[in-house]
Design brief:
Helices cover about 55% and strands about 10% of the residues. It contains 10 helices and 5 strands. InterPro entries: CheY-like_superfamily, NreC/VraR/RcsB-like_REC, Sig_transdc_resp-reg_C-effctor, Sig_transdc_resp-reg_receiver, Tscrpt_reg_LuxR_C, WalR-like.
Length: about 210
């Protein structure tokens, strides 16, 4: 039997899911929790095969509960079941360690199938979630480090690449030396380089300056 723990703040949702799973020959609901904190405590006490986790709950939400469970029990298999599909929910949940991500619009049989698949070690994602992940991956692949530079930081990077000192940059832009040093530090961090020379090489390599 696949032992399941339900964590959801809506009693009717827990009742509906539990009722359907109870008639499955290979799935058994061994516990329920109304918020992430109680769910975290029950997960560690019961050690279910699968944890079904809602996201938006009082006391402790699903993301924090997932993080807490995974920190204490890295082998836990958590399926997020929620109504939310926005980036602010999907990626933090997956990064926290959730194995699968389902929507509450899924049918009962789809949820049961997701439980079985996740139990086997597979990752189940709703088509909408998969689409968002591919969209985010595509944007990330086309994102360059210098895209994060501000207009002022780009100006200073150009002057660095031209061989200007911090004082010369300060004089050229009519800003203080301290401000220049702060901008240079930010530029090095954003470009992931160690010094001004590497920053200048980056600028030439990416055709930011002739």
């Amino acid at each position: 039997m696949i032992k399941v723990l339900l964590i959801d703040d809506h009693e009717m949702v827990r009742l509906g899911v539990s009722s359907y799973l109870s008639i499955q020959p290979d799935i058994e609901v061994i516990g329920e929790a109304e918020n992430g904190k109680i769910g975290y405590e029950q997960a560690l006490a019961l050690r279910p095969d699968i944890i079904m986790m809602d996201l938006v709950m009082d006391v402790m939400d699903g993301i924090e509960s997932t993080k807490a469970i995974m920190a204490e029990w890295p082998e836990a298999k958590i399926i997020i079941v929620t109504s939310f599909i926005d980036d602010e929910k999907v990626y933090p949940a997956l990064e926290a360690g959730a194995a699968s991500y389902m929507l509450k619009t899924s049918t009962a049989s789809q949820i049961a199938d997701a439980i079985r698949s996740t139990f086997k070690g597979e990752t189940i994602l709703e088509p909408e979630v998969t689409g968002k992940m591919m969209e985010r991956l595509t944007k990330k692949q086309h994102h360059a480090l210098h895209d994060d530079l501000t207009k002022r930081e780009n100006e200073i990077l150009l002057l660095i690449a031209q061989g200007n000192s911090n004082q010369e940059i300060a004089d050229a832009l009519f800003i203080t030396l301290k401000t220049v040093k702060t901008h240079v530090s930010n530029i090095l961090a954003k470009l992931d380089v160690e010094d001004r020379t590497q920053a200048a090489i980056y600028a030439f390599k990416h055709h930011l300056i002739r």
